[in-house]
């Protein structure tokens, strides 16, 4: 292959990919220097670098820390409940194929179809009758409903690769249904359950549309706090919280890569060692 042809087939696609990544991520990285500004408004640092806006995030009086704690608590509860319900439905629909599981699947996946604004108006009407507006239980239930479709899809995809002969073997050995579910099925659905829990957590942590309608002064999640800050006065702490979330995301991805490489390393064997272990 000539150098010119190699440049066209390999170099140009790589250059286009890097330019696309730069177009997507460089605007996001601008929030980092803005978060270090010494001004009280969004701007680049003028006279020096200041960490006062990061200090405001951990000050309970500013409201950012309480909003993060509220979002974290609701997101954890949503992740646990949505994953448990989604796993129960997915296993039941997998074991009992029929019309009713299919109809129930359409109902569970409806939040992905209905526009959030319509869903929000409906929840305001319903929650006002039950007295659940601006309450922990009301917000958590709504977040569970919104997160359950993603958890169902993740666990259902994992169940599609599950071998039903394992259940038949367990039954032939006299295993009871609880033993089959918790000892045979769930251990083999670990990746799907973990993915469903993560997706449910992210959905709850990032939800804003319905939360704006069903919350007031008592329940203030982090997205609602960000929305209020943008609407009232553009606070440089917004850039600080954005930088903190960006750093947390990068750390999570780095930990994920390190864990995956650590798990994969024992399975990788040196070809020379394999050749030595092969009987002649």
TrEMBL record:
It is a multi-pass membrane protein. CDD domains: TM_PBP2 (cd06261). InterPro entries: MetI-like, MetI-like_sf. It comes from the Bacteria. The chain crosses the membrane at residues 15-36, 72-96, 103-124, 136-159, 180-202, 237-259. The keyword Iron does not apply. Keywords: Cell inner membrane, Cell membrane, Membrane, Transmembrane, Transmembrane helix, Transport. It comes from Segnochrobactrum spirostomi. GO terms for biological process: transmembrane transport. Residues 68-259 form the ABC transmembrane type-1 domain. Belongs to the binding-protein-dependent transport system permease family. Its main location: membrane. This is ABC transporter permease subunit.
């Amino acid at each position: 292959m000539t150098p010119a042809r190699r440049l066209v087939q390999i170099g140009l696609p790589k250059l286009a990919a890097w330019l696309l990544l730069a177009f997507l991520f460089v605007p996001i990285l601008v929030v980092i220097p803005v978060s270090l500004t010494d001004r009280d408004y969004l701007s680049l640092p003028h006279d020096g670098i200041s960490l006062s806006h990061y200090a405001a995030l951990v000050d309970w009086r500013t409201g950012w820390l309480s909003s993060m704690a509220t979002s974290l608590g609701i997101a954890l509860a949503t992740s646990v409940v949505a994953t448990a319900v989604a796993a129960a439905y997915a296993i039941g629909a997998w074991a009992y194929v029929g019309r009713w599981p299919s109809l129930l699947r359409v109902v569970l996946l409806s939040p992905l179809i209905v526009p959030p604004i319509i869903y929000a108006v409906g929840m305001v009407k319903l929650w006002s009758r039950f007295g659940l507006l601006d309450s922990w239980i009301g917000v958590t239930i709504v977040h569970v409903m919104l997160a359950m479709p993603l958890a169902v899809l993740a666990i259902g995809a994992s169940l599609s690769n599950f071998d039903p002969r394992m259940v038949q073997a367990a039954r032939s050995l006299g295993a009871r249904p609880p033993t089959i579910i918790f000892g045979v099925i769930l251990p083999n659905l670990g990746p799907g359950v973990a993915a469903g829990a993560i997706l449910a957590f992210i959905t709850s942590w990032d939800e804003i549309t319905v939360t704006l309608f069903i919350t007031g002064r008592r329940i203030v999640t982090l997205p609602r706090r960000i929305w209020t800050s943008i609407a009232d006065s553009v606070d440089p702490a917004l850039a600080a919280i954005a930088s903190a979330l960006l750093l947390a995301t990068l750390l999570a991805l780095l930990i994920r890569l390190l864990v995956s490489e650590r798990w994969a390393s024992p399975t990788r064997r040196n070809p020379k060692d394999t050749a030595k272990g092969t009987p002649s």
